[in-house]
Amino acid sequence: MTHPARTGRPTRTGSAELEQRLRQAAFEVFCDRGFEAASMEEIARAANITKRTLYAKYPDKHALFTKILPWAMSSLQWDPPLVAVPEGDLRGELMMIAQAAVARAVDPSIAQLIRMAMSEARRFPEFAHAAHSMAWSPRLRSVIELLERHARAGTIVVDDPELAAEQFLAMVAGFPSMLAVFDLRRDTDVEQRHIEHAVELFLAGVEPRPERAPGRR
């Protein structure tokens, strides 16, 4: 007599694949429908799982989106093109970071996630917090490390690298990000001109001057 095979508990690999499929499906449904219009039933169908399975993992839409937002923001990284920048070329490195930051800021998926986080920020403030922290943290860290390296070499004077890095990213990507939330985007040549101007302005603010020494303001 042949007995049906037992399914048992899913393996660790199977669970990981299920979670990945669920997150991707939820991300696509949220982007397509918006947080308010998206339903758990629709997400379950998109992920090809039962509602019971979905609710076992996430009790409601709020819990699911809170988990999806930081995952989506971190997984949608935009890596800068592999352009050779001579070692010590601060201007070149800042230009490359700036272009990557702008490209990420205007990505339609990123803009949609931020749009949803903003629309739900009053009811769920953690949405906006997650969107802000995940959008800025990796890029911010790279700028901080770059500024610290050049400050140690004496090529720039920066009293607070974290503050300077945040201001640099705001200069290059803050306004493009806001435009993208409203489905607007500058022409490529116009955006490049803004990036170049922001980089030159920032460099002028951190370059060493005779009357200026580290620790002095």
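Second entry:
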Amino acid sequence: MDTPNKILIVDDDRDIRNLLADYLDNNGYSTITAAEGNAMWAALQNHQIDLVVLDLNLPGDDGLTLCRTLRSKSSLPVIMLTARGEPLDRILGLEMGADDYLPKPFEPRELLARIRSVLRRTQSNAHPHTGEALQKLKFAGWTLDLTARHLIGPDGMVISLSGAEFRMLNIFLEHPNRVLNRDQLLNMTHGRDADPFDRSIDIQISRLRQKLREDARSPQIIKTVRNGGYVLAVTVAVEQEA
């Protein structure tokens, strides 16, 4: 029997923590709860967590700070919650590396759907290419490690990617020198969950360019095609294990 995915719920509202934990437990997940950042780090250290549901408004370090710190260390999927529904909060959450975002109040079944979607995308990209021997994709001096799910720079430095960033970069590497518009990228990354007004594509590409040390005014790896979309304008090589 498969081990259920373990979800860490970080929210300072005890009622919300208990409600979400009960709901997710009843729908096939295993949950752990934390009320603030220190408890979150302890849970991450002591348990094998598959996804974090992280509230934005927390005592001490807020959710944006925690998400940014977590993202610098790990590609663990994060869904951010907030009582504020302003677009700026959503953009900030995505810029900090969250994989998805859900404003309060919300129905638990909506969160369940988001969790399933994020886990499905994350797990389906664990081995996105055919053949288990395939491990790395090389481009412009960079390497995307498909097993570890991180970038390796030309200088050998390892750079962590969020789940969303990993999926986005992997899509470009699977379609080199092909112009992909925002609708195509949304469908490839979010499928039926795509929002036609979603700005996450531009945010994720901006973050990828930063991690690829691109000049924002004249990027050479992921280029913008006016009225067209984006294109990975370099050659991609596949490295397989012997």
